[in-house]
Write a structure and sequence with these properties.
Elements: E1 8-12, H1 23-31, E2 35-38, H2 52-70, E3 75-80, H3 84-90, H4 96-101, E4 108-114, H5 127-130, E5 140-142, E6 147-149, H6 154-158, H7 163-172, E7 176-177, E8 199-204, H8 212-222, E9 227-231, H9 237-240, H10 242-258
Parallel strand pairs: 1-2, 1-3, 3-4, 4-8, 8-9
Antiparallel strand pairs: 5-6, 6-7
Length: 259
């Protein structure tokens, strides 16, 4: 297949989320002429001992490489919340200079993180240990069932979403296995040479799940230069302000394509 002049967005859902939570955002990106691929992560909807590394491998082998190598399209990767960890790790060796050195013509042109967890990883620590040893207050750990649960997702995740849509979004959430939070974080690529100037972070200013101050602390803690954009929503910008979010995402994609 001949390469498209526009990249494909590979959109990786957050914890306990499915592609349905991003459906309208995907529709807007498709309507703007971009391809989109999203999928349910292996750690979602199971109590088995599935790890963040399993998510990483799935994103790489079933989402990124098929678009790059089978369909011959460039990729812009979008991650949200939890998925910032496995998604960034999955892009290792897939940056533009990495792929060019291998004689490949397609690559991951950029990474867009939406209120994402930024764990450097690669040190054997899990995400809970990396961020102080405690899960966020809205998340409960069921050690026996090996699940992370949120008794009332609406306040932390959907407080600024219209009531009917928020209720439907809550119904669409599926518990995620606890081992995804208690397995070692794989090494991120936002500090890799191939992604210098190719990583952007969209901060959600009214976020009750990953507060704006925490987002800034994570960004600063990376020691990297980031492209940052702000959106005046809670944690689920894709539901609260999808048109605004899509315009930011497209603007960033155009920037990465032009580099």
């Amino acid at each position: 297949m001949a390469p498209s002049p526009k990249p494909v967005f590979v959109l990786v859902p957050g914890a306990s989320h499915s592609p349905a939570h991003y459906a309208y955002l995907q529709h807007l990106l498709l309507s703007a002429g971009y391809g989109v691929l999203s999928a349910l992560l292996p750690t979602v909807g199971t109590s088995a001992n599935v790890t963040v590394e399993d998510d990483t491998e799935y994103i790489r082998s079933r989402m990124l490489l098929p678009v790059l190598d089978l369909e011959n399209h460039d990729v812009i990767m979008i991650s949200h919340s939890y998925s910032g960890m496995p998604a960034s790790a999955a892009a290792r060796g897939l940056g533009k200079t990495d792929r060019a050195a291998e004689g490949k013509t397609t690559s991951v042109l950029g990474q867009i993180f939406i209120a994402s967890i930024l764990a450097r990883g690669g040190d054997g620590k899990d995400v809970v240990a990396t961020f102080g040893g405690q899960l966020p207050p809205h998340i409960q750990a069921d050690e026996i069932a090996n699940l992370v649960k949120c008794d009332d997702p609406k306040p932390p995740l959907f407080h600024d979403v219209s009531p009917a849509l928020a209720d439907a979004a809550v119904m669409s959430c599926v518990s995620q296995c606890l081992t995804s939070f208690k397995s070692p974080c794989p090494a991120a690529t936002w500090d890799a040479e191939a992604f210098k100037g190719r990583c952007a972070y969209i901060r959600t200013l009214d976020d009750q799940a990953v507060p704006y101050e925490v987002q800034n602390m994570m960004i600063q803690g990376t020691g990297q230069e980031w492209i940052t954009r702000d959106i005046e929503t809670g944690h689920s910008a894709q539901l609260a302000a999808p048109e605004k979010l899509s315009s930011i995402v497209i603007e960033l994609a155009e920037h990465f394509v032009a580099l």
